[in-house]
Amino acid sequence: APRIPLWGGVLITIADTFVFLFLDKYGLRKLEAFFGLLITIMAVTFGYEYVTVKPNQEKLLQGLFIPYCQGCGTPQLEQAVGIVGAVIMPHNMYLHSALVKSRQVNRADKREVREANKYFFIESCIALFVSFIINIFVVTVFAEAFFNKTNADVNQVCANSSSPHSSLFPNNNETLEVDIYKGGVVLGCYFGPAALYIWAIGILAAGQSSTMTGTYSGQFVMEGFLNLRWSRFARVLLTRSIAVTPTLFVAIFQDVEHLTGMNDFLNVLMSLQLPFALIPVLTFTSLPSVMHDFANGLFWKVAGGLLILLICCINMYFVVAYVMSLHNLGLYIGAAVLSVIYLSFVAYLV
User: Fold this and answer.
1) Count of C-beta atoms within a 10 Å radius of residue 169
2) Residue 89 backbone dihedrals phi, psi, to 5 degrees
3) Which stretch of DSSP H or E encloses residue 174?
4) For 229-250, how does the pLDDT look when each residue is reduced to its tens digit (9 = 90+)?
5) What InterPro entries would the database entry show (predicted)?
6) How far is 208 from 212, CA to CA, in rounded Å?
7) What angle do CA 27, 28, 29 make, to 5 degrees?
8) What is the C-alpha separation between 316 and 272, in angstroms, rounded?
Protein backbone atom coordinates (compact mmCIF):
# COMPACT_ATOMS: atom_id res chain seq x y z
CA ALA A 1 0.00 0.00 0.00
CA PRO A 2 1.47 3.39 -0.96
CA ARG A 3 1.77 4.77 2.56
CA ILE A 4 5.41 5.66 1.91
CA PRO A 5 6.20 7.25 -1.49
CA LEU A 6 8.85 5.58 -3.62
CA TRP A 7 11.35 8.43 -3.17
CA GLY A 8 10.82 8.15 0.61
CA GLY A 9 11.76 4.48 0.42
CA VAL A 10 14.97 5.39 -1.43
CA LEU A 11 15.87 7.95 1.28
CA ILE A 12 15.24 5.34 4.01
CA THR A 13 17.53 2.91 2.17
CA ILE A 14 20.27 5.55 1.93
CA ALA A 15 20.00 6.29 5.66
CA ASP A 16 20.07 2.67 6.85
CA THR A 17 22.98 1.88 4.49
CA PHE A 18 25.04 4.62 6.16
CA VAL A 19 24.11 3.26 9.60
CA PHE A 20 25.07 -0.30 8.71
CA LEU A 21 28.35 0.76 7.09
CA PHE A 22 29.46 2.38 10.33
CA LEU A 23 29.67 -1.14 11.78
CA ASP A 24 33.11 -1.00 10.17
CA LYS A 25 34.11 1.21 13.09
CA TYR A 26 33.98 -1.91 15.26
CA GLY A 27 36.13 -3.95 12.87
CA LEU A 28 35.86 -5.53 9.44
CA ARG A 29 34.92 -8.92 10.92
CA LYS A 30 31.78 -7.43 12.51
CA LEU A 31 30.76 -6.07 9.11
CA GLU A 32 31.44 -9.44 7.47
CA ALA A 33 29.27 -11.09 10.12
CA PHE A 34 26.48 -8.66 9.25
CA PHE A 35 26.87 -9.52 5.55
CA GLY A 36 26.57 -13.17 6.56
CA LEU A 37 23.33 -12.38 8.43
CA LEU A 38 21.87 -10.60 5.37
CA ILE A 39 22.75 -13.51 3.09
CA THR A 40 21.24 -15.97 5.60
CA ILE A 41 18.02 -13.92 5.60
CA MET A 42 18.00 -14.02 1.79
CA ALA A 43 18.55 -17.79 1.73
CA VAL A 44 15.82 -18.46 4.32
CA THR A 45 13.21 -16.10 2.82
CA PHE A 46 13.72 -17.10 -0.81
CA GLY A 47 13.99 -20.74 0.32
CA TYR A 48 10.58 -20.36 1.98
CA GLU A 49 9.14 -19.09 -1.31
CA TYR A 50 10.75 -22.05 -3.11
CA VAL A 51 9.18 -24.59 -0.72
CA THR A 52 5.81 -22.80 -0.85
CA VAL A 53 5.63 -22.68 -4.66
CA LYS A 54 6.93 -26.29 -5.08
CA PRO A 55 8.57 -26.09 -8.54
CA ASN A 56 9.01 -29.22 -10.65
CA GLN A 57 12.34 -30.70 -9.47
CA GLU A 58 12.82 -32.86 -12.56
CA LYS A 59 12.45 -29.87 -14.89
CA LEU A 60 14.77 -27.84 -12.65
CA LEU A 61 17.58 -30.41 -12.87
CA GLN A 62 17.01 -30.76 -16.62
CA GLY A 63 17.33 -26.99 -17.08
CA LEU A 64 20.47 -26.84 -14.92
CA PHE A 65 22.40 -29.47 -16.86
CA ILE A 66 20.83 -29.17 -20.34
CA PRO A 67 20.27 -25.42 -20.86
CA TYR A 68 17.68 -24.60 -23.53
CA CYS A 69 15.05 -21.92 -24.13
CA GLN A 70 12.38 -22.74 -26.70
CA GLY A 71 11.01 -19.74 -28.59
CA CYS A 72 13.14 -17.22 -26.67
CA GLY A 73 13.93 -13.74 -27.95
CA THR A 74 15.89 -10.66 -26.91
CA PRO A 75 14.07 -10.06 -23.57
CA GLN A 76 14.88 -13.59 -22.40
CA LEU A 77 18.48 -13.22 -23.59
CA GLU A 78 18.73 -9.95 -21.65
CA GLN A 79 17.56 -11.74 -18.51
CA ALA A 80 20.10 -14.54 -19.01
CA VAL A 81 22.99 -12.11 -19.49
CA GLY A 82 21.70 -10.11 -16.52
CA ILE A 83 21.88 -13.18 -14.28
CA VAL A 84 25.57 -13.61 -15.20
CA GLY A 85 26.18 -9.96 -14.29
CA ALA A 86 24.16 -10.27 -11.08
CA VAL A 87 26.00 -13.39 -9.82
CA ILE A 88 29.57 -12.59 -10.94
CA MET A 89 29.85 -8.85 -10.31
CA PRO A 90 33.04 -7.12 -11.47
CA HIS A 91 33.39 -5.00 -8.32
CA ASN A 92 33.20 -8.15 -6.14
CA MET A 93 36.51 -9.26 -7.70
CA TYR A 94 38.14 -6.26 -6.02
CA LEU A 95 36.18 -6.77 -2.81
CA HIS A 96 37.33 -10.39 -2.45
CA SER A 97 40.93 -9.30 -3.04
CA ALA A 98 40.65 -6.52 -0.45
CA LEU A 99 39.16 -8.88 2.15
CA VAL A 100 41.97 -11.36 1.51
CA LYS A 101 44.48 -8.55 2.00
CA SER A 102 42.92 -7.71 5.36
CA ARG A 103 43.58 -11.21 6.79
CA GLN A 104 46.40 -11.63 9.30
CA VAL A 105 48.76 -13.98 7.45
CA ASN A 106 52.55 -14.21 7.76
CA ARG A 107 53.38 -13.64 4.09
CA ALA A 108 57.03 -14.51 4.64
CA ASP A 109 56.05 -18.11 5.46
CA LYS A 110 55.20 -19.94 2.23
CA ARG A 111 53.51 -22.80 4.04
CA GLU A 112 51.20 -20.40 5.87
CA VAL A 113 50.40 -18.51 2.66
CA ARG A 114 49.63 -21.80 0.88
CA GLU A 115 47.28 -22.83 3.69
CA ALA A 116 45.60 -19.40 3.67
CA ASN A 117 45.12 -19.62 -0.13
CA LYS A 118 43.35 -22.95 0.33
CA TYR A 119 40.87 -21.45 2.77
CA PHE A 120 40.40 -18.31 0.66
CA PHE A 121 39.51 -20.59 -2.25
CA ILE A 122 37.01 -22.53 -0.12
CA GLU A 123 35.53 -19.25 1.17
CA SER A 124 35.00 -17.89 -2.37
CA CYS A 125 33.49 -21.19 -3.54
CA ILE A 126 31.01 -21.20 -0.65
CA ALA A 127 30.06 -17.56 -1.31
CA LEU A 128 29.44 -18.16 -5.03
CA PHE A 129 27.60 -21.44 -4.35
CA VAL A 130 25.23 -19.76 -1.88
CA SER A 131 24.65 -16.95 -4.40
CA PHE A 132 23.95 -19.60 -7.05
CA ILE A 133 21.42 -21.39 -4.82
CA ILE A 134 19.62 -18.12 -3.98
CA ASN A 135 19.38 -17.31 -7.70
CA ILE A 136 17.95 -20.78 -8.37
CA PHE A 137 15.32 -20.17 -5.69
CA VAL A 138 14.27 -16.84 -7.23
CA VAL A 139 14.31 -17.92 -10.90
CA THR A 140 12.42 -21.19 -10.30
CA VAL A 141 9.82 -19.50 -8.09
CA PHE A 142 9.15 -16.95 -10.84
CA ALA A 143 9.10 -19.65 -13.53
CA GLU A 144 6.69 -21.92 -11.63
CA ALA A 145 4.39 -19.19 -10.33
CA PHE A 146 4.15 -16.90 -13.36
CA PHE A 147 4.78 -18.88 -16.55
CA ASN A 148 1.86 -18.89 -19.02
CA LYS A 149 -0.26 -16.67 -16.78
CA THR A 150 -2.30 -13.80 -18.22
CA ASN A 151 -3.16 -10.48 -16.61
CA ALA A 152 -6.79 -11.63 -16.33
CA ASP A 153 -5.74 -14.81 -14.44
CA VAL A 154 -3.81 -12.83 -11.87
CA ASN A 155 -6.43 -10.07 -11.62
CA GLN A 156 -9.09 -12.66 -10.76
CA VAL A 157 -6.94 -14.46 -8.18
CA CYS A 158 -5.92 -11.15 -6.53
CA ALA A 159 -9.57 -10.00 -6.46
CA ASN A 160 -10.66 -13.31 -4.88
CA SER A 161 -7.96 -13.00 -2.22
CA SER A 162 -9.08 -9.40 -1.45
CA SER A 163 -5.66 -8.04 -2.40
CA PRO A 164 -5.51 -4.22 -2.64
CA HIS A 165 -3.09 -4.60 -5.58
CA SER A 166 -5.39 -6.32 -8.11
CA SER A 167 -5.59 -3.04 -10.09
CA LEU A 168 -1.92 -3.52 -11.06
CA PHE A 169 -3.05 -6.19 -13.52
CA PRO A 170 -5.49 -5.09 -16.27
CA ASN A 171 -8.32 -7.53 -16.98
CA ASN A 172 -7.07 -8.65 -20.41
CA ASN A 173 -5.56 -11.76 -22.00
CA GLU A 174 -2.06 -10.35 -22.47
CA THR A 175 0.81 -12.41 -21.04
CA LEU A 176 1.70 -11.48 -17.49
CA GLU A 177 4.96 -9.51 -17.20
CA VAL A 178 6.49 -9.56 -13.73
CA ASP A 179 9.34 -7.74 -12.03
CA ILE A 180 10.64 -7.52 -8.46
CA TYR A 181 7.65 -5.37 -7.43
CA LYS A 182 4.82 -7.22 -9.20
CA GLY A 183 6.42 -10.57 -8.43
CA GLY A 184 5.94 -10.08 -4.70
CA VAL A 185 2.33 -8.96 -5.25
CA VAL A 186 1.51 -12.06 -7.33
CA LEU A 187 3.12 -14.34 -4.74
CA GLY A 188 0.92 -12.70 -2.09
CA CYS A 189 -2.21 -13.25 -4.19
CA TYR A 190 -1.48 -16.91 -4.95
CA PHE A 191 0.20 -18.07 -1.74
CA GLY A 192 -1.09 -15.71 0.95
CA PRO A 193 0.10 -12.45 2.58
CA ALA A 194 2.97 -14.24 4.36
CA ALA A 195 4.62 -14.96 0.98
CA LEU A 196 4.38 -11.25 0.07
CA TYR A 197 5.98 -9.97 3.29
CA ILE A 198 8.64 -12.69 3.39
CA TRP A 199 9.50 -11.78 -0.22
CA ALA A 200 9.80 -8.13 0.86
CA ILE A 201 12.19 -9.04 3.70
CA GLY A 202 14.35 -11.08 1.33
CA ILE A 203 14.47 -8.24 -1.25
CA LEU A 204 15.40 -5.74 1.51
CA ALA A 205 18.26 -7.99 2.67
CA ALA A 206 19.42 -8.47 -0.94
CA GLY A 207 19.36 -4.73 -1.60
CA GLN A 208 21.30 -3.91 1.56
CA SER A 209 23.91 -6.59 0.87
CA SER A 210 24.37 -5.40 -2.72
CA THR A 211 24.52 -1.72 -1.73
CA MET A 212 27.08 -2.29 1.02
CA THR A 213 29.37 -4.52 -1.07
CA GLY A 214 29.27 -1.93 -3.86
CA THR A 215 30.16 0.84 -1.42
CA TYR A 216 33.01 -1.14 0.10
CA SER A 217 34.39 -2.04 -3.33
CA GLY A 218 34.35 1.66 -4.27
CA GLN A 219 36.34 2.51 -1.16
CA PHE A 220 38.98 -0.14 -1.84
CA VAL A 221 39.26 0.91 -5.50
CA MET A 222 39.74 4.55 -4.45
CA GLU A 223 42.52 3.51 -2.06
CA GLY A 224 44.25 1.21 -4.54
CA PHE A 225 43.84 2.92 -7.92
CA LEU A 226 43.60 6.57 -6.95
CA ASN A 227 45.67 6.37 -3.74
CA LEU A 228 43.08 8.49 -1.93
CA ARG A 229 43.41 8.10 1.84
CA TRP A 230 40.21 9.78 2.86
CA SER A 231 38.32 9.36 6.09
CA ARG A 232 35.78 6.55 6.11
CA PHE A 233 32.87 8.99 6.32
CA ALA A 234 34.09 11.01 3.30
CA ARG A 235 34.55 7.87 1.18
CA VAL A 236 31.12 6.49 2.08
CA LEU A 237 29.50 9.85 1.41
CA LEU A 238 31.12 10.21 -2.03
CA THR A 239 30.53 6.64 -3.26
CA ARG A 240 26.93 6.54 -1.97
CA SER A 241 26.12 9.96 -3.44
CA ILE A 242 27.34 8.90 -6.88
CA ALA A 243 25.42 5.63 -6.68
CA VAL A 244 22.07 6.76 -5.27
CA THR A 245 21.57 10.08 -7.08
CA PRO A 246 20.30 8.50 -10.36
CA THR A 247 18.03 6.16 -8.38
CA LEU A 248 16.59 9.04 -6.39
CA PHE A 249 15.82 11.03 -9.56
CA VAL A 250 14.09 8.03 -11.16
CA ALA A 251 12.13 7.44 -7.94
CA ILE A 252 10.96 11.07 -7.83
CA PHE A 253 10.06 11.53 -11.50
CA GLN A 254 9.14 7.97 -12.56
CA ASP A 255 7.57 4.85 -11.04
CA VAL A 256 8.68 1.49 -9.66
CA GLU A 257 8.54 -0.21 -13.09
CA HIS A 258 11.29 2.13 -14.36
CA LEU A 259 13.40 1.31 -11.30
CA THR A 260 13.05 -2.41 -12.03
CA GLY A 261 14.00 -1.84 -15.67
CA MET A 262 17.05 0.11 -14.53
CA ASN A 263 18.03 -2.82 -12.29
CA ASP A 264 17.92 -5.24 -15.25
CA PHE A 265 19.95 -2.81 -17.37
CA LEU A 266 22.59 -2.43 -14.63
CA ASN A 267 22.96 -6.21 -14.36
CA VAL A 268 23.61 -6.42 -18.10
CA LEU A 269 26.05 -3.50 -17.85
CA MET A 270 27.99 -5.30 -15.10
CA SER A 271 28.22 -8.36 -17.30
CA LEU A 272 29.69 -6.18 -20.07
CA GLN A 273 32.24 -4.82 -17.59
CA LEU A 274 33.41 -8.24 -16.38
CA PRO A 275 36.40 -8.49 -18.80
CA PHE A 276 37.80 -5.23 -17.38
CA ALA A 277 37.97 -6.87 -13.94
CA LEU A 278 38.84 -10.45 -14.95
CA ILE A 279 41.65 -9.76 -17.44
CA PRO A 280 43.81 -7.66 -15.05
CA VAL A 281 43.19 -10.14 -12.19
CA LEU A 282 44.24 -13.07 -14.39
CA THR A 283 47.27 -11.10 -15.66
CA PHE A 284 48.59 -10.00 -12.26
CA THR A 285 48.03 -13.40 -10.63
CA SER A 286 49.96 -15.04 -13.51
CA LEU A 287 53.05 -12.82 -13.14
CA PRO A 288 55.93 -14.53 -11.26
CA SER A 289 57.39 -11.06 -10.52
CA VAL A 290 54.24 -10.28 -8.52
CA MET A 291 53.12 -13.68 -7.20
CA HIS A 292 56.51 -15.46 -7.02
CA ASP A 293 55.87 -19.15 -6.21
CA PHE A 294 52.10 -18.62 -6.20
CA ALA A 295 51.70 -17.48 -9.82
CA ASN A 296 48.98 -19.23 -11.86
CA GLY A 297 49.97 -22.42 -13.64
CA LEU A 298 49.21 -23.19 -17.30
CA PHE A 299 45.83 -24.77 -16.49
CA TRP A 300 44.49 -21.68 -14.67
CA LYS A 301 45.82 -19.36 -17.38
CA VAL A 302 44.09 -21.32 -20.17
CA ALA A 303 40.87 -21.91 -18.19
CA GLY A 304 40.68 -18.26 -17.14
CA GLY A 305 41.38 -17.03 -20.66
CA LEU A 306 38.67 -19.29 -22.15
CA LEU A 307 36.17 -18.15 -19.52
CA ILE A 308 36.85 -14.48 -20.30
CA LEU A 309 36.53 -15.20 -24.04
CA LEU A 310 33.18 -16.94 -23.43
CA ILE A 311 31.87 -13.96 -21.44
CA CYS A 312 32.96 -11.53 -24.19
CA CYS A 313 31.24 -13.66 -26.86
CA ILE A 314 27.98 -13.85 -24.84
CA ASN A 315 28.04 -10.09 -24.30
CA MET A 316 28.65 -9.27 -27.97
CA TYR A 317 25.95 -11.70 -29.09
CA PHE A 318 23.51 -10.01 -26.71
CA VAL A 319 24.42 -6.52 -28.00
CA VAL A 320 23.97 -7.59 -31.64
CA ALA A 321 20.63 -9.35 -30.92
CA TYR A 322 19.34 -6.41 -28.87
CA VAL A 323 20.26 -3.74 -31.42
CA MET A 324 18.92 -5.79 -34.37
CA SER A 325 15.54 -6.02 -32.61
CA LEU A 326 15.26 -2.20 -32.55
CA HIS A 327 15.21 -1.83 -36.39
CA ASN A 328 16.92 1.57 -36.44
CA LEU A 329 19.85 2.38 -38.72
CA GLY A 330 21.19 5.12 -36.43
CA LEU A 331 21.27 2.70 -33.50
CA TYR A 332 23.00 0.10 -35.70
CA ILE A 333 25.79 2.57 -36.48
CA GLY A 334 26.08 3.74 -32.85
CA ALA A 335 26.19 0.18 -31.56
CA ALA A 336 28.81 -0.77 -34.17
CA VAL A 337 31.07 2.13 -33.10
CA LEU A 338 30.65 1.30 -29.39
CA SER A 339 31.30 -2.40 -30.08
CA VAL A 340 34.55 -1.57 -31.88
CA ILE A 341 35.65 0.63 -28.95
CA TYR A 342 34.67 -2.08 -26.44
CA LEU A 343 36.48 -4.88 -28.29
CA SER A 344 39.51 -2.65 -28.88
CA PHE A 345 39.79 -1.93 -25.17
CA VAL A 346 39.42 -5.62 -24.31
CA ALA A 347 42.10 -6.44 -26.90
CA TYR A 348 44.34 -3.75 -25.38
CA LEU A 349 43.94 -5.32 -21.94
CA VAL A 350 44.71 -8.76 -23.37
Assistant:
1) 27
2) -85, 135
3) none
4) 666 667 667 766 776 777 777 7
5) NRAMP_fam
6) 6
7) 90
8) 9
